């Protein structure tokens, strides 16, 4: 009698379903994509630890006032706004991979220096350099991915890296919460120093990967060193996508302030709303990015982003109007879901538009210029939302009209010049 031995289960079948779901959404298909995702996770993990503790450290331990911390951060934002494009120009001329590694080393030095800062002037000085490096990194990173990863996998890889970063940031923040239970100076310094170490490790890993050899074009060194982007349509696209990038300010400013102070939503739910955004972003970013591999798909995604953000505004306005707590809570969760959808569509659309419409030999300079829209949003949106939207009857409805218009601009104003798949 022959006894048949059942086949060994496949490795995938033996893994928990949660692992399989995360793997399907987070792991890029190419080897270089997986390596870049790994170093991005390290980056985000360290950042999560730092941003969860730095404000408390500099106010409670160092002794700075909240106004001084805010001033230093504003100086950092201004430095990033002014310095990102020159860094992009340097990256096009001297190999974007080298600049990418150099920026990571500079970040490590700056965050390590924060452990020694004990006065306001020194904090401002270090914050300015950090603001410059943090603003310069995203376009340089996108340029590296664009060169290192095959074109058909570029948007998918960017989406998965972004999902990995969201997860890493959340885990880093969780570690910070656990480490800060005692509130000691040593605990704060451990987190800040850990963030600095993460950048040194990143630089070493990137060097071993051979990223230093990555360049946007073979003849980039023969092109003019400093020639700013003068393409009016590209600048218009940067402005439009900067408006749609308001989702970042909505999550950090509008969600906690509006729902906790202007609706019946109990403040305890704010943490759950932010957590919902993180979970959805991790699980859905790759799925939302799939239609955006072409410019026509990116154009449609921009419209959907504008509509979703407008939906957030409508739900927020309704949450303010209702007089039943459970309805206000449900509307708050609906608003955050729509906000997340807008975030995912905007991100995927912007990757394709900013990359495909840039001159190949000057791609990093173009991407850095595109980043200006996001940087301006970070400067202007907090004031506009808290002063105009919050302070005006029906302010969220006006906000929705603005985001819908921004989403339609790519189709109406830039249709021929920008959004042709043959471009």
TrEMBL record:
<feature type="transmembrane region" description="Helical">
    <location>
        <begin position="264"/>
        <end position="284"/>
    </location>
</feature>
<keyword id="KW-0472">Membrane</keyword>
<protein>
    <submittedName>
        <fullName>Membrane protein</fullName>
    </submittedName>
</protein>
<feature type="transmembrane region" description="Helical">
    <location>
        <begin position="111"/>
        <end position="132"/>
    </location>
</feature>
<dbReference type="GO" id="GO:0022857">
    <property type="term" value="F:transmembrane transporter activity"/>
</dbReference>
<keyword id="KW-0812">Transmembrane</keyword>
<feature type="transmembrane region" description="Helical">
    <location>
        <begin position="234"/>
        <end position="258"/>
    </location>
</feature>
<keyword id="KW-0813">Transport</keyword>
<feature type="transmembrane region" description="Helical">
    <location>
        <begin position="36"/>
        <end position="58"/>
    </location>
</feature>
<dbReference type="InterPro" id="IPR011701">
    <property type="entry name" value="MFS"/>
</dbReference>
<dbReference type="Pfam" id="PF07690">
    <property type="entry name" value="MFS_1"/>
</dbReference>
<keyword id="KW-1133">Transmembrane helix</keyword>
<dbReference type="GO" id="GO:0005886">
    <property type="term" value="C:plasma membrane"/>
</dbReference>
<feature type="transmembrane region" description="Helical">
    <location>
        <begin position="396"/>
        <end position="414"/>
    </location>
</feature>
<feature type="transmembrane region" description="Helical">
    <location>
        <begin position="296"/>
        <end position="314"/>
    </location>
</feature>
<feature type="transmembrane region" description="Helical">
    <location>
        <begin position="199"/>
        <end position="222"/>
    </location>
</feature>
<dbReference type="InterPro" id="IPR050171">
    <property type="entry name" value="MFS_Transporters"/>
</dbReference>
<feature type="transmembrane region" description="Helical">
    <location>
        <begin position="168"/>
        <end position="193"/>
    </location>
</feature>
<dbReference type="InterPro" id="IPR036259">
    <property type="entry name" value="MFS_trans_sf"/>
</dbReference>
<feature type="transmembrane region" description="Helical">
    <location>
        <begin position="326"/>
        <end position="345"/>
    </location>
</feature>
<feature type="transmembrane region" description="Helical">
    <location>
        <begin position="70"/>
        <end position="91"/>
    </location>
</feature>
<keyword id="KW-1003">Cell membrane</keyword>
């Amino acid at each position: 009698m022959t006894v048949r031995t059942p086949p060994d289960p496949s490795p995938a079948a033996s893994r928990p379903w949660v692992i399989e779901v995360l793997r399907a959404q987070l792991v890029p298909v190419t080897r270089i994509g997986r390596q870049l995702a790994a170093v991005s996770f390290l980056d985000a993990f360290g950042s999560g630890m730092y941003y969860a503790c730095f404000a408390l450290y500099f106010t409670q331990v160092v002794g700075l006032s909240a106004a001084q911390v805010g001033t230093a951060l504003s100086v950092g934002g201004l430095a990033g706004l002014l310095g990102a494009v020159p860094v992009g120009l340097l990256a096009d001329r001297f190999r974007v991979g080298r600049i990418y590694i150099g920026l990571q080393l500079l970040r490590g030095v700056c965050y390590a220096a924060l452990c020694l800062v004990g006065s306001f002037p020194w904090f401002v000085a270090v914050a300015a350099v950090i603001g410059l490096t943090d603003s310069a990194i995203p376009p340089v990173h996108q340029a590296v991915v664009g060169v290192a990863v095959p074109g058909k996998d570029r948007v998918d890889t960017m989406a998965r890296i972004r999902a990995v970063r969201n997860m890493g940031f959340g885990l880093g923040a969780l570690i910070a919460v656990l480490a800060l239970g005692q509130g000691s100076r040593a605990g704060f310094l451990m987190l800040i120093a850990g963030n600095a170490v993460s950048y040194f490790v990143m630089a070493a890993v990137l060097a071993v990967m051979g990223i230093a050899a990555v360049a946007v074009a073979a003849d980039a060194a023969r092109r003019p060193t400093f020639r700013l982007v003068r393409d009016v349509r590209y600048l218009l696209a940067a402005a439009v996508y900067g408006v749609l990038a308001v989702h970042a300010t909505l999550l950090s400013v509008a969600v906690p302030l509006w729902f906790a102070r202007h609706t019946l939503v109990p403040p305890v739910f704010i943490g759950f709303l932010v957590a919902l955004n993180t979970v959805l972003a991790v699980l859905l970013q790759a799925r939302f990015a799939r239609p955006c591999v072409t410019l026509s798909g990116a154009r449609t995604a921009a419209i959907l982003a504008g509509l979703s953000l407008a939906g957030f505004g409508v739900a927020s306005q309704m949450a303010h109007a209702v007089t039943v707590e459970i309805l206000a809570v449900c509307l708050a969760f609906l608003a955050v879901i729509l906000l997340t959808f807008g975030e995912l569509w905007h991100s995927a659309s912007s990757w394709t538009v900013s990359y495909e419409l840039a001159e190949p030999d000057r791609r990093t300079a173009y991407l850095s210029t595109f980043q200006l829209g996001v940087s301006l949003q970070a400067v202007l949106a907090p004031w506009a939302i808290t002063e105009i939207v919050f302070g005006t009857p029906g302010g969220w409805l006006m906000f929705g009209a603005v985001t819908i218009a921004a989403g339609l601009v790519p189709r109406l104003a830039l249709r021929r010049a920008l959004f042709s798949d043959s471009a």
